[in-house]
Amino acid sequence: MKTQVAIVGAGPAGLLLGQLLLGRGIESVIVEARSRDYAEHRVRAGVLEHGTVALLEEAGVADRLHREALVHRGFEFTFDGRRHRIDLEGLTGRCITIYGQQEVVKDLIAARLASGSPVHFEARDVRVEGFQSGTPSVRFSTLDAGEVKLECDFIAGCDGFHGVCRDSIPRGVLAIHERVYPFAWLGILAQARPSREELVYANHDEGFALFSMRSPSLTRLYLQVPPDERLDAWPDARIWGELHRRLAASDGWQPEEGDILERMVAPMRSFVAEPMRCGRLFLAGDAAHIVPPTGAKGLNLAAADVWVLSQALARHYAEGHDDLLDAYSQTCLRRVWRAEHFSWWMTSLLHRFPEGDSFRDRLQHAQLDYLASSRAAALVLAENYVGLPLAGL
Ligand code: RFL
Ligand code: PHB
User: For residue 137, how far is its CA from the centre of ligand 1 (angstroms)?
Assistant: First the structure.
């Protein structure tokens, strides 16, 4: 089997890259370890930046999004029993879009299948080889295709944080920068009407909480919990009780309760591997970097990476120049480190740290008070939250 670009991973990064390349007349084959059903039902991100929506439009997969997604012009944060609104649109002229990651993935898979371009689900023993020479390949096996050697010009490592691509790069090539936070998020998806129009981030003595949504009948909520917390420590009544307590403010608002359809515990980590390239292997999305979800940046960064990569590959194939490929890592890392800082900062601002540090608590309070009272402070938050512009879009 032969192709121009072998894409490892059918998450948002790999699928979007495949669509963007298709639009430029570049062939690709996508190799995914899990089933289609699994990929389409993994409940994760929900906040899309303006630039991410523009990219989905560019890729021709935004029709359902425009019919079903919720556009939010601001969000709120709660501390000291008070609520403050960040007027994203008033401050930046931009909005955010609420549309589940699994819906983005469904739309991308449907477009891929409609195009007839190959995607191999449930691929086993995926290995990437030869990327430091001129003859890279991806080996894998599937029930239908048997043992496959896929020869290609380039490999896009879009296989997430636990994938094989980053680990296949020889020792000493990558520098790793990492922070692991002393807490996790317990997330639920509930069959309940979102009883407030915008997202609410809460800083509370008992820990962080977040009210979000997916549709007019689905609420998405998160609670800060200890790292490696067991889900069975959290029966429904305890989850709702804690959400009511942490999201409460003087206005008396409470989230509506409903059946819990999904629940999970997600660790919190910041991670960057650089450079995002080794020879003809290019890392994109969570394969190269992780942010804690507080800033809602992970999926958006993955989209930005593959936009840069698609342009660089287009220049290679159309004009025979590798300048954009050579600049790929540096171009992406500039945005990645901005988002790393923002996500670390939002996380530090809103969570309770277990060691009980009164100095840190006072700093959090001073910063929240500043955000609530200074347009300049709110603008820095808003500009980062809606997302910085993507060059060339
Ligand atoms: P993914 O989505 O992990 O996809 C990688 C794909 O690669 C496959 N794979 C392999 N395939 C072949 N061979 C192998 N050996 C393979 N190993 C793995 C996997 O099965 C998978 O299909 O990475 P990608 O595409 O880079 O996308 C990144 C995003 O998924 C991630 O950054 C976001 O979900 C992060 N995130 C959020 N991002 C936002 O922008 N806004 C948000 O509101 C937001 N909220 C969140 C989040 C992540 C969360 N969790 C669970 C960590 C909320 C949460 C709770
Ligand atoms: C979500 O809706 O899942 C969500 C929203 C905002 C975040 C993280 C997750 O910061």
Answer: 24
CA distance 239 to 114: 42
- pTM value is 0.97
In angstroms, what is the span from residue 176 Cα to ligand 1's centroid? 19
Helices 323-350 and 375-386: crossing angle in degrees, nearest 10, is: 130
Is 66 part of the annotated catalytic residue set? no
Cβ(11) – ligand 1 distance below 6 Å? yes
Q: For 90-127, how does the pLDDT look when each residue is reduced to its tens digit (9 = 90+)?
A: 999 999 999 999 999 999 999 999 999 999 999 999 99
The pLDDT confidence band at residue 134, using thresholds 50, 70 and 90, is confident
Ligand 2: residues whose CB is within 6 Å?
45-47, 199, 212, 220, 293-294, 296
- Cα within 13 Å of Cα(60), Cβ side: 13
Active-site residue, 317 included: no
pLDDT digits 0-9 by tens, 223-264: 999 998 999 999 999 999 999 999 999 999 999 999 999 999
| Shortest-distance atom of ligand 2 to CA 212 | 2
Residues 369 and 153: their CA atoms lie apart, in Å, by 53
Q: Give distance in angstroms: CA of 328 to centre of ligand 2.
A: 28
Ordered alpha helix ranges (H), 183-297: 236-247
